[in-house]
Design brief:
4 copies of one chain form a homotetramer. The first copy, chain A, is an alpha/beta fold and about 280 residues long. The first copy, chain A, has one domain: TIM Barrel, CATH 3.20.20.150. Chain A contains 9 helices and 8 strands. In chain A, strands 3-2-1-8-7-6-5-4 form an 8-stranded parallel beta sheet. Chains in contact: A-B, A-C, A-D, B-C, C-D.
């Protein structure tokens, strides 16, 4: 079980500032002690269209120099192009699938093995069953592409922000229906809280299918500054033999934040639990 | 002085849901009584790349059928592609300029005359002077393109979200430095509140250069549900001879909102002030 | 469109006190002006096993004397016997189905035509698909029984309290899968709020399948003391031709309440909207 | 003095979810370290009618395997059947008495020695003296039955939820009037808080008649997360020679809870006080 940190709070998504270049972000997270970095595929960090081969090589070298690896990558849904795989607009759906593939490629280029999949959301006028079908088809398409890159796609329930895959069983169902051997599931404690559900329930039910974990507390606060029972969560992850990345996805929903501060607080709170020294 | 309503709260930007198709949004705002609609250039409403000529013609007819006009359009900065005209990434800057031009074209195609300009923001590591220069150059480029379409570009100070053009004078300075005869300024009461400034001060200082106004109260609440003095504001607009659109840009920063409710409450509160019946 | 009031706040469910006998409750609601009363099937009001034929005849006469009708009835899930139709315990599932039938019979005996259906909830260790299947089978069984009594069964999404049927489309799907011609759907604004969804979306999507409506605001407050847009809601109900009961289900989750007070406040706020005088 | 934990927060009473099967609940509480488990007689855990002899034997073996004993059992009043021993409905009163006997039998079958007695509540229209008389008669009946099973009945003042036995002296008076040698009293710090009374006052006044104790803080929070002085409380219990179970009855009034978290926090806070190591 290793620790990683998600870059949103250092980027311009979804809140524009504060914003740091990717190289600066890599250096800071490595210095705090994180094993991995989860890079969001948004400007100014890692929008695929903005990064040519030379830029990717440079980022990879910078990661190596700092002794930190890419734990995972994820798209930035909801902005201008939307990237909603369940959109009623065919043009948006096609572009979303294309974007997921570009992010999978970028992920592999940077040495990453895990791509997060947000199943999209239902726009008024679209039936749930139709939205689900579009999302399922997109997942199948993306997963097949990612398989060739040796990248695993993990489906995340995002109840706080969306209305299609909101639960543990919803994510498992989409995973199963995709049929892909490189498709797994993940969860984020923040979305558990939105539904008033228990994070360890997710661990035990996802078990061997669990490929990734996000930690965040109420209001996207750092672990230890909220109400989630992390001691039980880490113990449960150990119970099921989880060997992926426990990743902080915190602090990014407000301009009123010091990125290094939340990154360090989270690390200092969780590291001893994972190391078995607390 | 006419009333318009900004579509964010009906769209997937910045919060993914609730989300309504554009035709449904047009119908609802027209029924409430708005003269104009400010359309955000984001999926699923109006991302330029997703709308071919046929789609634009169809939207235009739907607007006409409902007796409502496009008051203005604006981009959706901060999402995946960023669209930060002051980004340290050249690829992002070029794409941002291109996107503003596409939105200007779409605006003209739909009968609109006003394009909002967000001056971008300074990423850590970029000097203010450099960011300003990039923003100024982008504005000059976009304004020249828009002039041929008979579209006016209005510079908006966005202090709550950015760090480059944050004030009344900052917007006026960028406008002047652009040199474009089709460049004006605008302001949003929400950003005035963020700086604890007085909205009527903006009216009197922008005066003849004022091309557009956004209304929103604390936490993006509807006018009447907060603390701004709208009676004074409307009176000040009348004083300076403002003949543009007073546009509500409200409710969009949370999933916990009924879009029609904030749209109607805002209309019912402001309409009598504008009509001189309250 | 008629107005009804749910009896929980006058009963011992879920909070034990204040508690009034059913005859007293009938008299008070009729005096305030309600057309209908929604009776909860719990002691001391209307637990079927406690009411023999004579008692039912007496209640019916009392209703007639006071000029008020039974708009609907509903079970009281979650107490000792549970009545969870999706329980992992077979004994509980069978008893739940039996209880729904008893309530349907009691409803018909008192002149009511509508039975609410809570689809149950998923206990840890039960898969969603299994819980759904049990709930679907129970609904089919109950609906067939109710059909002979000329009683319609309405499926309610109860997101704030359960985890199986939480959404508009979930309720519609269960309804369709039941195949019963006397099965419809309903919704409660309180549960919309829990999911941060828009009540009018439910109206337009349920439309002709909408058989019943519950009104309640944040914290089960009376309409007018919260944030729901009732003006839009009543207008939407009129749009789709709804001719059932708009029923207040409020105030019951705390001992700190005056039942008559919330009943009267709700009536005075909603009546003019329904009557078209506000 | 031993520590026990009440199962409500793991069950569907009074809030439906989260909900865990009884065997899972037993396993978790034993692992945390509790000596005893207080089982609520509600679905899906232990509604007597749902548990045949085979099921009871299986539960007993599971308890033994996990090294934890049944400290006590209690009914689930207020649900559909009410189980209010002071109800104006004779059918409900008779059924309540019957239910208490069934729970006493189940308690004995599982090896438990203590049955909690909620004295019921006064419904509008019933005189206090009448309600009291019904409750007294019920207690006499139940206690006689329990005596043959070697089960002690403890009367609990429940001021926060009821209006008949609300105080220390009320409980003692009902106990004395029952005349049963296997009738004692208990108290819950949560109900002391509701009346703004001092928990140690209850200890010293109940003294040798004190058979059981519930711990819970403001809003049913875990000990240590509220305002009660547990150090003084445990000391007072030691003063009077209390040798029963100190039982946590916490967290169950909201869906927003992680059961293991409150169970462990409570244990870690109280255990050192009881062990004399803090």
């Amino acid at each position: 079980m290793r620790l990683a940190f998600n870059t949103w709070v250092y980027s311009s998504f979804p809140v524009w500032v504060p914003s740091y270049p990717l190289d600066e972000t890599i250096r800071r997270l490595a210095r705090i002690g994180y094993d991995g970095i989860e890079i969001g595929a948004a400007a100014p960090h890692a929008y695929p269209d903005y990064l040519d081969d030379a830029a990717r090589t440079e980022i990879k070298r910078h990661l190596d120099d700092n002794g930190i690896v890419v734990s995972s990558m994820l798209p930035a849904p909801g902005g201008g192009p939307g990237f909603n795989v369940a959109s009623p607009l065919e043009a948006e759906r096609l572009n979303a699938i294309d974007q997921y593939k570009k992010v999978a490629k970028l992920c592999a280029d940077l040495g990453g093995k895990t791509l997060l999949y947000v199943a999209g959301w239902q726009v008024f006028g679209t039936r749930t069953e139709q939205a689900w079908e579009w999302s399922r088809e997109a997942l199948i398409d993306v997963a097949a592409y990612a398989a060739d890159l040796d990248v695993t796609v993990v489906v995340e329930p995002t109840s706080a922000d969306s209305n299609l895959v909101e639960t543990c069983d919803g994510a498992l169902r989409l995973m199963r229906e995709s049929g892909g051997s490189n498709v797994k599931v993940m969860f984020d404690t923040y979305h558990c809280l939105y539904r008033n559900e228990v994070p360890t329930d997710y661990v035990y039910r996802m078990a061997k299918d669990l490929g990734h974990v996000h930690l965040a507390d109420l209001n996207r606060a750092a672990p230890g500054d909220g109400k989630v029972d992390y001691k039980a969560l880490i113990a449960a992850l150990r119970d099921v033999g989880f060997d992926g990345y426990v990743t902080m996805e915190i602090g990014f929903d407000t301009r009123a934040v010091e990125p290094d501060n939340v990154a360090r607080r989270a690390y200092e709170y969780i590291k001893p639990l994972v190391a078995g020294t607390a």
